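Practice problem: predict the structure.
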Amino acid sequence: MSDSPAQIIVGSAVLVVATGFLIFAGQATGFGSSRAGYELSASFRSAEGITVGSDVRLAGVKIGSVTRMALNTQTFFADTEMTLFDGIQLPDDSAITIASEGLLGGNFVEVSPGGSLSNFQAGAEIEDTQGAVSLISLLMKFVSGSGAE
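Answer:
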């Protein structure tokens, strides 16, 4: 049984489109990205919405990504490591927050630079952190009236 030329063309087109989707997905998730950088760590009370691969942003621009997350069984905080791109030097009094892109958007780590003249060294820990704020708990407080004074 021989394949018709139309079947061969359609099959080839499907393979090309599937390959394009795989390449796009790999670029969007940063898979295979080998951009050099240095690591910083931080502990969050709540790292809800952040996963390995989440963006680290400064002024809305991606400057790195989250590379590891684990629960610290001593403090019950989420220990997080992130890699920042080489050339991005943060003052050592900078703060980081887990922020949201909006009601339906994802979360990311937002850096608020400090004013110190010295910078974080590779492997340093950012101590000024603010965890994720749960939108559901805020809505529940608003609806129930608790917290209103």
